[in-house]
Each structure stands twice: as structure tokens, then as C-alpha cells.
Design the sequence.
């Protein structure tokens, strides 16, 4: 018996700035988790991950992260991914400054 597939988003770090980014359904890299494409099929998830890892001049470290549907788009499931949505924790800049 196979396991039920847990929905995913493709995430990576932008090569130049190091920002956490998410792959959208229209092939953009967004800074916002809720704009990510929520992938609900394993085969499609693997294809999207291959597409992301091929973009070596834009992003690094692409991987699939568990997510769940939310009222405004995908939401992180695990603490690590929730933490990554807020940006670096060493000082207030970028996403953290925008949240204040």
C-alpha cells in the first residue's frame, strides 16, 4: 500500500542575494510562500523540481517542501519552512523589516 502524497511547494535560495524563494505556477520565483504553486501529485512535483534545479544561474539548493492549502495560498507545514518564510534571523532587513 502506497503512502498518501503530501502536497509540496518548490523552494530554493536566490543565487545572488540568498533570499528564500518559491516557484510559482507561472514559473516565477517569488519571495512569498503563499504565491508558490501547491503541487498535489508526486510525478508533477518531481518534474517541477527538475525544472527548478536546472535554473543554476538563478537559484541554488532547490527542494520540495511539505505544504498545505490555506485561504491565501499554500502554507508551510513544518517549523523550519515557517521560519524560512520570515528571512534571516540575525538582523532586521528584507522580509523581516517588512513584517514590522
Sequence:
Amino acid at each position: 500500500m502506497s503512502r498518501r502524497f503530501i502536497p509540496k511547494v518548490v523552494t530554493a535560495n536566490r543565487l545572488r542575494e540568498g533570499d528564500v524563494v518559491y516557484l510559482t505556477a507561472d514559473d516565477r520565483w517569488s519571495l512569498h510562500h503563499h504565491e508558490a504553486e501547491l503541487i498535489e501529485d508526486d510525478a508533477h512535483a518531481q518534474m517541477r523540481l527538475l525544472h527548478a534545479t536546472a535554473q543554476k544561474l538563478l537559484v541554488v539548493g532547490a527542494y520540495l517542501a511539505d505544504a498545505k492549502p490555506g485561504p491565501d495560498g499554500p502554507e508551510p507545514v513544518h517549523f523550519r519552512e515557517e521560519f524560512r518564510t520570515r528571512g534571516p534571523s540575525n538582523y532586521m532587513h528584507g522580509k523581516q523589516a517588512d513584517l514590522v
About this structure: The chain has a mean pLDDT of 90. The longest strand covers residues 59-68.
